[in-house]
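Operator note (shift B, R.M.): manual run for Asparagine synthetase B requested after the automated queue skipped it. Running by hand, logging everything below so the morning shift can see what happened. Input copied straight from the record, untouched. If output looks odd, do not overwrite the archive copy; leave it for review.
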Amino acid sequence: MSVKLQMKRERVKPMIRLIIPFIIFLSFSQPLFANRLLIPMDEKQSNHLKSYGIAYWILKDYGVEIDWLLNYRGGSFMVPFQQAFAREMTVRGVSFEVISEADAAGILGEVTAPDVNMDAVKLQKPPRIAVYTPKTKQPWDDAVTLVMTYAEIPYDKIFDDEVLEDKLPEYDWLHLHHEDFTGQFGKFIHFKDFPWYREQKRVAEEIAAKHGFSKVSQLKLAVVKKIAEFVSGGGYMFAMCNATDTFDVSLAAEGLDIVESVYDGDPADQSANQKLNYKSTLAFTDFQVVIPAYEIEFSNIDNQPEERGLHENNDFFTLFQFSAKWDPIPTMLTQNHTTLIKGFLGQTTAFKSRYIKPEVVILAENKAVSEARYIHSTFGRGFFTFYGGHDPEDYQHKVGEEPTDLNLHPNSAGYRLILNNILFPAAKKKKLKT
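Run finished. Output pasted below as returned.
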């Protein structure tokens, strides 16, 4: 080997010693200097609905705590950087930003500053979710199961048997949707010749008989009381459509017959409205039940279309703005990228404000027609939330229509309110101050 070549090699060795560590440094630089993943929930988010599913998946499969940044960019989420998280967000089409630890600390400092209406809560443990739904196929969809399936959030289906056999304590969060708890089969007597109606009635009567009840209304009252017991004991209950008002109607009418003979074989007590007991109800008071069999309303709680005077083009409701630091629970439940939500109908669409108990928090309303669309309160040691309407992306969903395709609505503000409720039980609670 020549002396010149040997000298060149000697000069290269120190350079190699410098380059190799630099290459290693670069290969690790992203996790070293980008230690957090921010999931924005403002208009920059490409799929708001699946973002909630990502949060649930991180909690369930990895046990990693999540910062829910209330009122920061639409209620964004922040998690520690992991390649698996970034990869899964990419697969599910969820937008995210890789930020440094210093940036994360800056965000946390910003949201926790005393002079801003923002805060951070820790999501710690995924709730065990049950959906109260009949085993037989129904001729309508269920917005909550649709969005949980789309967001890839797992849940179990339960019905009257499981409730009466005390299975509810196995769960943290219970959903009720489009269920008539008065035992009148949705007051769909005009569908009495349809196979689905006959099957629904047959199954309900069989379950009632199995548990020793002579009427379906008695069965449903027993179910409602079990669910109320679950909530009072510390559970979370979320209801939509006519599962909201029929729940309280059933409780208020305990011991009374408000069901006409076309549904249960004997006449209703026409003086039942003078005997209602509102002490045991969750959300509503001073209402009257609708007894006539062919009127497709259960009570005067619901603000009916002819009373509202609204149509699809001008039907909107507004979310209240709460103090993130003083009222964290209602703040969590109203996180969104807009405060104006387009309305949608249901068998129970909205709640007349004058029938809502004073302790119940109104989360969203349409003041022009004196109605609340979204309400929440404590009950015993637990919580319940009622959301009027049937499907946030189908203004007037009709019996037998195809389910909503949420691939067409990944940024639905109306569906986000449902998902807020699903993550709410995962939060480390701060005491409600107002």
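Quick read of the result: Confidence is low (pLDDT under 50) at residues 18-33. The domain at 34-123 is CATH 3.30.70 (Alpha-Beta Plaits).
Leaving this for review. - R.M.
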